[in-house]
Structure formats: structure tokens, C-alpha cells
Amino acid sequence: MATAAAHRAAGTLMHGAADAIGEAEAHQRAFDAAVAADERIEPRDWMPDAYRATLIRQIAQHAHSEIIGMQPEANWITRAPSLRRKAILLAKVQDEAGHGLYLYSAAETLGTSREELLDKLHSGRQKYSSIFNYPTLTWADVGAIGWLVDGAAITNQVPLCRCSYGPYARAMVRICKEESFHQRQGYELLLTLSRGTPEQHAMAQDAVDRWWWPSLMMFGPPDDASQHSAQSMAWKIKRHSNDELRQRFVDICVPQAESLGLTLPDPDLKWNEERGHYDFGAIDWDEFREVLKGNGPCNEQRLSRRRQAHEEGAWVREAAAAHAAKHSNHATGTEGEQA
Amino acid sequence: MTDTDWPLWEVFVRSRRGLSHTHAGSLHAPDAELALRNARDLYTRRGEGVSIWVVPSAAITASSPDEKDPFFAPSADKPYRHPTFYEIPEGVKHL
């Protein structure tokens, strides 16, 4: 389902390419032409093996992050301070599950399976975002996650809506629409605390102090140390560099923090007239690498909880499969256009 | 798909009456009934739909991307199928 430009390029080249090497080259050129023309690559198109592997790695990591990301917030569902907040938090955590499922489906179009993806998450062979290895110590953390963590995610994800791989881009469009609610509920929650009692204000400030730096790390290593960036930009999987997106996020957050009546925990944060951006302090990349390696505060807890949920859900999956097998003669045949 | 994965279903959602069902995405489910329920939870959490179809992905027959040029070629060289192909004198109305 590649697009016109790609097929013209492939067609022209295929006529003269009798041998396999010529054919491979024609495929590569058709792919390059489609990417250059800003057209989308679809599942059944030819694509370089490395492009496929990169996408599986990135989409899987993204999906796993949504699924693991349910845990730190779910920690507060039973202790939400009001029914309103509880209903909001339930809806948000349910959205994260949905986002994980959209993304698993997108990854599966590349030839991997759901079982394989889950297995790689559970065995630690595929990663999820390090941010979810930090604990949610107070109710204000739910607000800080919505504002900062989801805010950083949105900054990262909006350009992914134009990613060169069609199914990933389409999943991101749906996700970005829903993330906006997540960020706003977090901001409103923090604002309520910030304007509350001195204790509530302090709780909000403490949460922002703890989540600010890990949120900046969500954009990944600096450009000169990012191993996948250059190739992903060339393939138009990524549209902006890590540092560019991180700067964009900082610039957005500073005035938002002021409106909240809260400060960001960085003494070096100041407006740079010349650059037209906020300067900010050095990020502790040693901490980032440690958490990535598995030595964050909650790495072990998050993975073991995920494995436990999977194992404890086994009987539900088995029962559903048994029910489906028993009623397999009714399994298909819902009404069509007449419905 | 592996042995333990439930079958894959394609989900089509009619966003409101008067519009056709549009492909929304896919999901795994053991049978059609659960596919419908999962589709409701996954693709219509914000009132995006008034009707859902689920179709086993394996039941879909698709044209091959490799065949695209010859397969669709017959329509490419018939510009006379478009109204703009015809020259009509200026001033002729309702045409």
C-alpha cells in the first residue's frame, strides 16, 4: 500500500532489474522515495530490516510504558480524596491501558505477536520508560505525573503523529487526543493543592520537586550521546531531536509553573534573551543510566507486579478461550450492513 | 499470531447515524461477542461510536501492495471519467 511516488520509483527500476540484487535495490529505492516524499509506509510494504526492528523496539517500549505506567497512579485510586477525583483517575488509568493496546496492535503489524511482546516485557528483554520506576509517595504525585510526565509525553508524541510508519502514526493521533485530558486533570489537581492549605501547597511543591528532573530525562540522552537518533530522524520515525523537544518542554513549563504558584527545582533556570529560550541546569545522566539499568527505586516492584497480574489473569484467559471453543458455531456471523 | 494469542479482529466504528463504519483499529479476543465488548471499551470510551462491527482479520482479502500499479492501472488512463475532462462554453449554466 505504498504510495504513488514509491511505486513509480519501484516500477521504473523493476523493469531493468532481472537479478535479486537489483530487485532488493529497487525495493530500497522505492522505500527511500516514499520516505523522502513524506508518504507513509504501510504494513505490507517492503521495508529495510533495520527499520522494522527499530520500529518494533520503539513501539514495544512505548506500549510497555503505557501498561507499566498504570501502576504508579493506580496506587492512589483507592485513596483519592473525593469521588470526582477517583472517577477521573480511574478513567485516566483505563486510558493508559487503551493506549498500550493501540500500540501493541501497531507493533503486531510488523510481524511480532502479543505473546512475544508481553514475554519480552516480563523477562526484561524490552524496556519501558524509566520514569515509571519512581514511586508515587503522595496524592500530589498524581497531579505532578499528569502535568509533567504526561506533558513531556505529549511533547514527544505530537510529532510522532507524522511518523513515517502508518499504523504507529495513527495510534499516536488517537493517543494524543486523549492525553490532553490527562495533562489538564493533573494541572488542575496541582492548582487545587497549591491554592489550598499550607500543607497542601507544600505537598504539591514537593511532588513537582521530585518529578521535574525525571520528566526532563524522558526525552532521552543528549543528542550527541543518543545512539538511535540520527537513523530514526533519517527514516522520519523521529521528527525532532531529544534536546530540541526537551527545550520545548522546559519553555512550556516555566510559565505554567508560575501560574500554579509553584517553583521548578533548578537554580540555573532563567530566560536567555539571546537564544529566545530558557536555560536550565545539568541533568544527572548517571541517575538516568542507573534507573535504566534496573536500579531505580521501583524497577523490581513494577515488573513483578506486572508478571503477577499476568499470571493471576491466566484463568480468565483460559475460561474465555474455553467458552469461545464451546460456542464456536456462534462465534461469527453478526449482522452486516443491515445491523 | 502464536498458539496462545487470541485471534485478531478488525474494528469498524460508525461515529454517527448517516455515516458509514470506518476502520478504527484491531484487537485480540477469543470470540465475536468479547471482540465487540472489547471494541466498545477500547475504541468508544468517549462516545466515538453508535455502532461497531468486528471482523476476524483472517477473513479480510486485500489487494497486494506489489500489484498496486497493474491492479489499479485501468483507472489511471481514463481522464474522461472526470467532469473536468470536458470543455463547455462559458456562460452555460447548471452543467
From TrEMBL, chain A:
Enzyme category, top tier: oxidoreductase
A cellular component term, taken from the record's GO annotations: cytosol
Protein name (record): 1,2-phenylacetyl-CoA epoxidase subunit A
Keywords carried by this UniProt record: Oxidoreductase
Pfam families: PaaA_PaaC
GO biological process, one term: phenylacetate catabolic process
EC number per UniProt: 1.14.13.149
InterPro entries (UniProt xref): Aromatic_CoA_ox/epox, Ferritin-like, Ferritin-like_SF, PaaA, PaaA_PaaC
GO-annotated molecular function: phenylacetyl-CoA 1,2-epoxidase activity
Organism: Streptomyces mexicanus
Automatic annotation (TrEMBL), chain B:
EC number: 1.14.13.149
Listed transmembrane segments: none
GO molecular function: phenylacetyl-CoA 1,2-epoxidase activity
The protein's enzyme class: oxidoreductase
The keyword Oxidoreductase belongs to this UniProt entry's keyword annotation: yes
UniProt keyword terms in alphabetical order: Oxidoreductase
Matches recorded under Pfam families: PaaB (PF06243)
Domain of life assignment: Bacteria
Name of protein: 1,2-phenylacetyl-CoA epoxidase subunit B
Record organism: Streptomyces mexicanus
Source species taxonomy: Bacteria, Bacillati, Actinomycetota, Actinomycetes, Kitasatosporales
